[in-house]
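User: Please check token order:
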Amino acid sequence: MRNPILFLCTLLLCGCGTTPGNAGAPAPQDAAVPDRAPTQPAETAKPLSDGPFPARKRREVFSFLSISLEMGAILASSHPKECFSMHASLSPASPRRGLTDTTLKAIAAGAMVLDHIYYLFSGLLPIPLWFTMAGRLAAPVFLFCLVEGFTHTRNRKKYLFRLWLIAAPMGLLLFFMRYAGVLVRPDGFYPENSMLSTFVLLVLFFQGFTWIASRQGKKILLGLVLVLFLLAWPMLSGWLTLCFPSAATLIGILGYAVIPTMNITGDLSLPVILAGLALFFAKRSRIAQVIALFAVEFGWHFVLVYAQVRTWPDFAFSQMFTMYFEWLGGILAAPLLLCYNGQRGRGCQRFFYAFYPAHIYILYALSWLVLAILGS
């Protein structure tokens, strides 16, 4: 039986047809049965006792049950998808196995803290090298979560605005640290973290390529203009600075706080942008995302770096694992991405927006304090 629900409903309906509920309108005793020879006269049906429930009430109850079962049979036979979705909506959702988006972000945040401890304290305290090696997985995982967030968010404008609202003041502070010496440590060190600015730039790229893929004339044109502008903005800002030296500060603030500018190194460097775009273009397949991420990370940070440093007189191949190990990010992040179960997870979504700048500046303040203690 292909549909056990329909079979059960049919049986129950047949049972309802012989119940006292159908005795409310009995057939005449002398009615002939078609295609069958007449038999001995039917016995006169004995009236049923009302018992605790009157016959009228019993007829109403059995009529209600009959209609309910008929509707169930129709849904099960003619609309299996609707019947399944109704059952799924009423049943409590069971969590899938694997890692949720929140879990991935928590793991990446832990690795990021280790990496930044090494970044801020390695010149002051003996911090193990594996702190920063483990931290290589943070950026790829956060980039993956950015692609998921952009794909599934209900309002992309608000999503971009939340990122920019934190990235802008961080970029502005970095500008004044770099060019005005504001809040720079006595030894000349200052944090150059700008990953949220990278996220802002990537979301703009994502939106531009989404418009281009929409196959609608106006959106294609708008997407091309946006993508070309983002690619040309670093050269355009440099040209404007040369042409209008008096406006160099304003143009610099625009490039640090308003419209992030790609750099050669750092969080806003080209390989980080390429890694984010690779994850975005391969978003229909998790395996394709892992392969694309590994290709970018290994190709840029291992193949190209090795081609550059292999001719150096003091270079040894082992340094690719102890000094030039940025390529480990794609390998360390791959198992986590493959374990992603596609679910958002519980809470803590806005916590990560505040956690990024908070932990950087708290660790920076602590490093300043350690430097003052060691200096005294």
